[in-house]
Amino acid sequence: MAPWIQALGDGAWTIYFGRAITRQANARALSFCSLLARHAGTGVLTGILEWTPAFTSVTVHADPRQETLSGLDAALLDLAGQAEDQLPPGRTWEIPACFDENYAPDLHSLAEACSLSPEHIIERMQESMLTVGMLGFMPGLPYLDGIPAEMQQPRRKTPRTSVPERSIAVAGTQCVIYPWQCPAGWHLLGRTPVPLFSLNWKSRPALLAPGDSVRWRPISVDEYLELEQACAAADWQPESLLADAQTQAQTPSARFSLDSEGCAPAAVAESRSCLEILDGAWGVSVQDEGRSGWRYLGVPLAGAHDPETFRIANALAGAPEGSAALELLGGGPRFRVAGPAVRCGLAGDALLKVSRASGESLEIPSGRGTVLKPGDVASVVCHSPRPAYLAFSGGIQLDPVLGSRSTYLRSRLGGLEGRTLQTGDRLETGSLPASEQGCDLLLGPDPAREPADDAAPVELRVIAGPQRDHFTPQALEQFYSTVYTVSPQADRMGLRLHGPALEHGELGADIPSDGIVPGAIQVPADGMPIILLSDAQTTGGYTKPCVVIRADMPLLGRLVPGDRIRFVEIGMQEARRVQHEAAAAFRRRLDAIERLAVAGAPDESRLRRANLASGIIISSSNE
């Protein structure tokens, strides 16, 4: 079967090598990754940022900084035609697994659906040799193929909102191990004490790689608890689980090092300030533009939930583009400046309250970058649960993890030890040069934003998705004519919608897992749409009728439970035109940020306009 290509929004494509999971399709997908590793960065392929291999497909993500992507899809399809049918050599692992009923809540229901006994299900699991076809969904999560035919059942109709970490689950021909607690829709049959992903390992952060083989070593509950404790030690290494002394397999990837590439530059040590967190508030995390280059290991992009508001906050602070800032989702921190002066930029529906060390109290609205001096105490009051951002001159200075300072809470990666802000934390930021301490920065009104109509639903423009043909024409017509409501089941990973269920056609709801991007709308078997957001998984096995365009991602990031939305389908050319115009308009808005003299300080802009030879203005309180 010849490969074919489908757009995944207006910034990614998925190249498919088969409709069903086969060894040949998986080998060609992995071979295509090797070709990408050799040719990316040359010719038309300079527009490639990274790629995500799956069982039967590869999703290629374009660099968002590229002004034109013309011809990239054709070049990708041409390269895919050169993929070979050979699987890369892998390793064989013996992974301990506990199939006790306490760790296998779906054992009896799966056995009943298969007309087998629970004991027979466990026996077949122990006898099976499984092959790793891909990593995806979340960091280090392996998808293994080879589940016996008599055990094969589709995914659960409605996914669970949470499953325990290191759970072993099956669906169809596949088996997965969930490295962390997460939502999932597969049947849980056991658990392993072995971690699947760690930055402490000497070789690579993911335990398994495509092409590896896995067989289970059954253990008791007592053995499970003992091994769980041993594997949690910082010096534990996974090579003891190899069936024999095999060399480290090389997996085709977009990057191979754990460096800080892509991060905004750190301020030099002599020019840093410090913030003492007096009250961490709820849901405050460190975010930047996200960690690209690691989706091949299942590591999501993450990053700022509302990229426009994030960029505004950094611009108001005078920080470099992409600097790490605090993301506030309904609560704001209280902090003291415990170092040199710093400029603080606040963007979003929030207010900054400042108690100066001198005794003066100020209330500063959002949209202003304000100079904070040593001893000043500031707090943020959020007026809604929509994202707000607090940025600082020079950015928040933390050690990057996999090239980013963004916090990915589900896997405890990045930021402050992978968690939200807590009382007692200390954050280093870049300080403010003396020449900059005499002015604040002010954001002007947005000329493109129309007055808000609270009664009108938010319109999100979308492009047809790769599984549009899995839905009946009537279902698609209903989808685009329905006003949906954001349900309370909403977080940084995705939004579940309330509204009429979408009816799948003959092709059904389940697909071999393929690539995901933030903005993708997936529909499980229950027909209820889910919009994926900044912490979206890297791959997923549910149908995607459409994808939100990049220009509307800031709108998507501002949605909260209770908001009403409707979808409007547009074509690729229009999406790219809208993206180009929106990016240019936003750049003009940032460039128009004004400098305002702080009371008692010389106004440098007035000096320049007056062209005074002396360079001195005597300020008056009456001015």
From TrEMBL:
The record lists the organism as Paracandidimonas soli
All residue ranges annotated as the Carboxyltransferase domain in the record: 3-208, 296-585
- Any one GO molecular-function label of the UniProt entry: ATP binding
List the InterPro entries hit by this protein, alphabetically: CT_A_B (IPR003778), CT_C_D (IPR003833), Cyclophilin-like_dom_sf (IPR029000), PxpC (IPR052708)
SUPFAM superfamilies reported in the protein's UniProt record: Cyclophilin-like (SSF50891), PH0987 N-terminal domain-like (SSF160467)
The record lists the lineage as: Bacteria, Pseudomonadati, Pseudomonadota, Betaproteobacteria, Burkholderiales
What NCBIfam families does the annotation carry? urea_amlyse_rel
One Pfam family name from the record? CT_A_B
This one is known as KipI family sensor histidine kinase inhibitor
Q: What keywords were assigned to this record?
A: ATP-binding, Hydrolase, Nucleotide-binding
Q: Tell me the Gene3D superfamilies matching this sequence.
A: 3.30.1360.40, Cyclophilin-like
Is the keyword Nucleotide-binding assigned to this protein? yes
User: The organism sits in which domain of life?
Assistant: Bacteria
- The answer, when asked if Electron transport is one of the entry's keywords, is no
Q: Which residues form a coiled coil?
A: none
